[in-house]
Write a structure and sequence with these properties.
heterodimer; A: alpha/beta; Rossmann fold; seven-stranded mixed β-sheet; two-stranded antiparallel ribbon; 32 helices; 12 strands; 61% helix; B: alpha+beta; SH3 type barrels; five-stranded antiparallel β-sheet; 2 helices; 17% helix; Transcriptional_repressor_C (chain B); FeoA family protein (chain B); FeoA_core_dom (chain B)
Chain lengths: 709, 75
Amino acid sequence: MSDNNLPTLALLGNPNCGKSSIFNILTGLRQKVGNFPGVTVDKKVGITKLADQSVKVIDFPGTYSLYPTSKDESIIINTFSNPSDQNYPDVVVYVADVTKLEPQMLLLTQILDLNLPVVLALNMTDLAEETNLTFDEEKLRQELGIPVVAVSGRREENFDKLKEAVFQVYQGINHLDQSHNAFYKLSENEKHIAKEINSVIGSENDYRSLIVAHHYSDLNYLDGSQKSQIEEIVNKFDYNELRGQIDETMARYNRFTPIVKSAVRKSNEEARSFTDKVDRILTHKIAGPIIFFGLMFLVFHAIFSWSSYPMDGIEWMFAEAGTFLKSNLPDAWYTSLLADGVISGLGGVLVFIPQIAILFLLISLLEEIGYMSRAVFMFDNIMQKFGLNGRSIVALISGGACAVPAVMATRTISNWKERLITIMVTPLISCSARIPVYTLLIAFAVPPIMIGGFINAQALMFMGLYLLGIIGALLSAVIFKLILKTEEHSFLMIELPPYRKPNIKNVLLTVREKVEAFIFQAGKVIMIISIILWFLASYGPGQQMEQAREEAIELAQKRDLNEDETEDLIASKQIENSYAGFFGKAIEPTIEPLGFNWQIGIAIITSFAAREVFVGTMATIYSIASKEDDEVTIRNKLVKATDPETGEKVYTVATSVSLLLFYVFAMQCMSTLAVVKRETKSWKWPTIQFFFMGAMAYLSSLIAYQLLS
Amino acid sequence: MATLASLKEKRSARILSFQDDRIASKLLSMGILPGSMIQVVRKLPGRGAIYLKANGYGIALRNHEAASVLLEEQS
């Protein structure tokens, strides 16, 4: 999108004012998500048309005032106090929820005092109708001196009018007198400060300089000498920042409260009464958490059951495509690269889409309704003890289905340290890809007996593995909490907005955005790693692969095997002699203390693509017909596996328990690492994650094997 | 001195002053000023978070965050 030369329209407003609906209606599908320079704050940008003029629309994070308390909000102060900023708007659409206009006038009058051309969009007129609230647009227009348009984001009403008003303001036609009396009159002291700062930063706007006096240390566009000059000025006039903010806020309220009172008539005094009633149950000390876990169970269940059909479909499609290529293209290296590397890599990316889509469909639905902030409120206290945030609980629970969407869901945690810890520990929660591995191995570790006559020992083991994952996640969270240092203050301070009907369009656009982000950013890494893994499994040092093939054919003839059995034997011998087999043997001394042989070593390497690949690799190594690679067949084969030198069984209880523990803790998932890289914007954190989880896996397997063998 | 953290569930009081600049800044941004009435909707057990209502907003604060908001003595 070459949108750099287009005029900029900024969407601004309080959180929960319905700004994103308006953004979605204005830009439709012509939008993308980027980042504000230097920070991990999403910057949503889209294109809209005003008459014949295309304009760039930027959806700024919701904020209550020009006195920011978070990273998101400080974007706004950096942009709006700097006319040479690349995102500085040519025109502002200020979105306000008309049903609670008064507190939203604070930011509006601040923006007006910065002399920006503004159109006021009074949103949620549908809600106003339902609650019998009436308002006088003309009165507001006169009092504020700016165009005012009533719109409904939900019903998509009056957007032509809004665009027309914005276009006129942009052209300067209807740009009412901006040298109007400023809403806030600076005190004598503040005027002196503003005058001196004006000359430091070359500003003509006193209010802008006052804002700079308040925030100069957070403003990226000021250089060191400017900052120290401003610091001197602030100290010279003994400027008290908090006092200043209180005085300004009170003065503004005194000024606009009468305006709002005269323009808006509420017939229903208690607009929150419905919300209050619902919250009596949903935030109840006992019922609240129960309802939350019930809802999360439904979400978990939905990810699990709804996604299995599309996932099977995607896997089938790519398997068929691979087979089709192999049977229609010459038997050459590029066919294998296409079928086993590229196609299966692509399948490995796309197979996650159903889970990501379903999780974000449900999570953003709960978010839209206003429920998520209640969950944060209820669990903040407990989560904090582990260095996490109330919002972490959503990620941790979703991690039980799949860590990939769960890690993506941490974006709502605004404190960087708490978000990072959540990202680091979420993959320890046992995900659905571990289930096939658990199912395969539990039978070797625990006999199928009933404890006390009614508790299935294998089921108990299964549950134990899940619990171990949860305990591992919480314990490592505590350790990260002690290690990681941050200057950023941790806040709860969250608005609990009134409950409202979800806007389905917003929900669907969120889903689309998350799916795209995964495909285009994590997908690249997954593709590259799966091609590397293909290479490792298909090629070997020197002529070993060819020799292995010939030996296998010879052996097959000797044993009088049929065609399928021969193919399986070849595959088995080839993987043994490939680079993967080479590495498997190379790491054997390292993994021997855990009770693993080189065959398991190969499976550990290849299952880095995804944990469930372990089962398939085991099938290949023990040359099990590809058609029968279900867990029961493989299990029967593995039971017979013996060490050729000692003749002892490979899958003893000790080895199986050790391997299970390894899969509980090890970071055996390239997709998660790719997503962690995307979310933390560096390779540092996925690398640390890989090694700390690896260390946990290695140590617990070592202890278990040494104790049991 | 009475603080917002010591206010009982379902009770309201008038804000006297703020002791933490960051909490103050956030509340001021929502138009919650010294002199505003504030109500405790729910307090979670174990010094958990507190659900408050003021100026038409529902807000959750941690216990220690609420402790930084001083209240006028009730008559």
